[in-house]
Structure formats: C-alpha cells, structure tokens
Amino acid sequence: MSSNWKITARGPRQAVEQALAAQGAVDNWDPDFVVGARELPERPEEWLLEAWLPRRPTHGDMLRVQKLFTGSAPRVTTERLGDIDWVSASRQHARPIVAGPFRVRTPDFKRLDQPDLIEFEIPAAQAFGTGQHATTSGCLEMLAAMKARRVRPHKIADIGTGTGLLAFAALALWPHARATATDNDPVCADSVLDNATRNGIALGNGRGELAFGVAEGVEGEQHEARAPYDLIIANILARPLIELAPDFAAMTSARGHLLLSGLLVSQEAAVRSSYRRAGFRLVARLAKGEWSILWLRRRYQV
Questions:
Q1: Which of 2, 24, 236, 246 has an alpha carbon within 20 to 30 A of 186's alpha carbon?
Q2: Could you tell me if 44 and 236 are in contact, meaning their C-beta atoms sit under 8 angstroms apart?
C-alpha cells in the first residue's frame, strides 16, 4: 500500500461546515480524496477540515481544499500518515451509533428494521450532525429521558439544527407535536430538506410536521408565529447559549423545557448561571467526555 497523507485547514466552525457541505455538493469529487471535519476540544469554536489521500498531495490538491472555503482561504498544512487505509478508516469512524432508542447511520450501512430502534439516515459528508459527535448523541439520549419522564411538548423548536437530526428525533418521540427547525447557515437548508425526505419527515406547519427556515438565533417569522414553545433544543456553543438565555426565556411556555448542548464541562457553570437568572432550573445533566448536556425547565411564574 502506498503512503497516505492528510491535508488540514483550520477555521471557524461555520466556515468549516460550509466547506464540508460544498465538498459534498461536488458531483465528480475523487472518492479516494476523503474529507471530514472535527472540532478542537480545547477551542470548540475552531474546527478542522481534514482531507486524506493515498498519495503525496500536490499543490493542486491543496488549492482544491482551499477553494471549498468562501471568502479568504485558510492556510493548509500537509502530513504524512504512513500505510493506513484512510478510506476504510474514515468509514469505520462514521459507523452507526446508537443513542437511547435511536440508531443513526450513513447510507453506507443498511437499516436493521428492528422494532425497538428509531433509525435515521444522515450522509457522512454532514459530519457535524450525523450523531457521531458526543453532544448530538447526548441530546438524543436526553430526549429519550424526557419522553420516559412523561414530557409532552406540543410545540418544539430546534435552534441551530444543522442536519435536522434532533428535530427529526423529537418528532419521532412526539409525533403529534408541531416542530420548527432553524439555522443561521443557508447551506443547511438543502441538507435539512434532503434529510427530511430520506427519513420520511413531513414538511409543513401542521401536527407531526416540520417547518424549516434560515434564521439568526431566535429571529425569523417561524418563531414569531409559533412561540411560545414547550421544548427548545439548542446544540450550539456556550457563548451563544449564554447570550440567548433571555430570548429563550421569552419564547418558552410556562413550565417549558430546554435541552442545551455544545458546551464543555468547564463552561457549564457559566451557562447554568445565565439560565438560572433567566428563570430556569436544572432537571438533569449528562456528561459525555468533555461535553455537557443540560435539561432545564422554566420555573412556574404567576
């Protein structure tokens, strides 16, 4: 086997997500040129776009990676990895995950058709929302815990939805709810709509249907028309979670629920403090490695 190499580009999370989506939209992309993305645990707002090749990268290969980014292209580095089949390794990394009653897989894997599993198919190119990340799988587990404790939301919002996976999961648990999913990245629109079709999610404004829109935070016509919500899901980052605490309080129903993730354990105290001031109490927490998943409930107010 020939030597394998990796090209790496670093950038803000949104820029890397957009670059990954751009690569997924290229019809004639070389299948031996495997691309993925991951966050830096110590700096969660920074992500790495990584591309593996079974040969030494050329200048053209590096330009191909840079051109996936809009605006100013980031600097790229190359690294020799040795004799590893990185195509197979990357597929193993994207193997199906099971979280609570959910199984999330890529199209490379077959559906199991087990009655006790709720399956979703999310393409591997959308690595930022396939369920592989601890925050996403942790949210899936916490949604199942909410269902087990008889939470019954009628209106659900998924803020920063990415691939739509968490909104899909919520609708699977509460099929008579009205769900709204928004993201501030227009690139996500095609992903959400494609994934809804793949997974049989009905789009619309009625019960059991998902309405999607591009919106910054809690802005947008969808939220104005549908709030207050009984359950808000936000798997984003600690800083915007803190900034959005007053807005989430304003758009949550009395005794409504929040599911927050995307924050490090070291950031949990600051996030919980901001939501305590906004009128929420902690119901449950889940730690997945360095990441925290929080279930909060709005305190009763006369």
A1: 246
A2: no
Q: Which residue has the tokens 């920074």?
A: 46
How many alpha carbons lie under 13 Å from residue 14 in its C-beta half-sphere?
12
Joined together, the tokens standing for residue 70 give 């809009």
- Is it the case that residue 165 has pLDDT exceeding 90? yes
Phi, psi of 278 (to 5 degrees): -85, 0
The helix, strand and coil proportions of the chain, stated in percent and rounded to the nearest 5, come to 35, 35, 35
Alpha-carbon distance of 20 to 27, in angstroms, equals 14
152, two tokens: 């019954």
- How many CA atoms are closer than 13 Å to the CA of 156, on its beta-carbon side? 31
| Helices marked H in 37-105 | 59-66, 86-93
What's this model's pTM, rounded to 2 decimal places? Answer: 0.73
Dihedral angle over CA of 240, 243, 245, 251, nearest 10: -80
Q: What digits encode the pLDDT tens for the residues 256-273?
A: 999 999 888 889 999 999
Domains and CATH numbers, the chain: 4-89 (3.30.70.100), 131-298 (3.40.50.150)
